[in-house]
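Private note to self, pasted from the team thread so I don't lose it. Backbone tokens:
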């Protein structure tokens, strides 16, 4: 996605393995920048399976009871809701299968001959608030909602520091706050230099997911836990919602279930592209789609 912003001040930096940009009406102060950097580093040290001494990497070694940071319950609560709505296909337990497929800590992009089956969430994990108890080694991967959640936490940090009009953009997963309205281009999943439409955002989040964004050989990063193999029917999704975490999670869920199923629980707008090139979308997206 590409955004056009009239906000005059831009802070660009790298975090969580990707590029971030905060566009604001006034410059972001040094103290706030330090808080943002620290917050994202703590998130990565907790949830990144690509860091050998991260919290989720420690959990992957042996079963037990583990106390996550208090706000982690928001991440797991959303996962549990999406798990039910997608018949177990959106799950934080895909980490080992992804690593076996080649999306591992070394980014080897070389799949093993056998891919570990994805365990059923309720059979191996029990949660009480932010305390997770596992009965076997489990490699968590919160990639379906994690970046969106990180965007939301930075939004709240900026608000607390007195900023009122800004955009937080984590490589296309973004949220707009304040008086500004942003027109955002929707990236063509077949050609990253093109857009297939635009959408106007005002005090909303937009997240997208595409199966060819992280692709190697016959694999990509969106796998069906029931088959431990990559999905094929849907190739790209876009979601607008009030929070980036919800938009992020729904963008993944739309690879596995219908928009109507998710609308029974969430208020959101969507567009998704099928493998045959056909596109379906809610009315919110309709006026911006290029014919």
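Design output:
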């Amino acid at each position: 996605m590409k955004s056009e912003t009239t906000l005059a001040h831009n802070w660009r930096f790298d975090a969580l393995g990707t590029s971030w940009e905060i566009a604001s009406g006034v410059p972001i102060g040094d103290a706030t920048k330090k808080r943002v950097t620290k917050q994202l580093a703590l998130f990565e040290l907790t949830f990144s399976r690509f860091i050998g001494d991260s919290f989720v990497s420690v959990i992957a070694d042996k079963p037990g009871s583990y106390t996550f940071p208090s706000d982690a319950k928001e991440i797991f609560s959303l996962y549990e809701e999406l798990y039910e709505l997608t018949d177990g296909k959106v799950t934080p337990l895909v980490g080992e299968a992804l690593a076996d497929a080649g999306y591992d800590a070394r980014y080897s992009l070389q799949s093993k001959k056998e891919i570990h089956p994805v365990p059923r969430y309720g059979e191996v994990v029990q949660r009480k608030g932010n305390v997770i108890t596992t009965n076997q080694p489990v490699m968590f991967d919160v990639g379906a909602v994690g970046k969106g959640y990180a965007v939301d936490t930075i939004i709240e940090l900026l608000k607390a520091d007195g900023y009122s009009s800004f955009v937080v953009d984590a490589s296309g997963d973004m949220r707009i706050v304040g008086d500004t309205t942003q027109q955002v281009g929707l990236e063509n999943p077949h050609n990253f230099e093109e857009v297939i439409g635009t959408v106007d955002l005002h005090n909303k989040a937009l997240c997208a997911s595409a199966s060819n964004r992280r692709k190697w050989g016959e694999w990509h990063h969106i796998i069906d836990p029931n088959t431990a193999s990559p999905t094929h029917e849907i190739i790209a999704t876009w979601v607008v919602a009030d929070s980036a975490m919800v938009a992020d999670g729904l963008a993944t869920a739309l690879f596995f279930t219908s928009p109507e199923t998710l609308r029974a629980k969430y208020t959101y707008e969507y567009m998704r592209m099928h493998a045959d090139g056909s596109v379906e979308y809610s009315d919110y997206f309709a006026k911006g789609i290029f014919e």
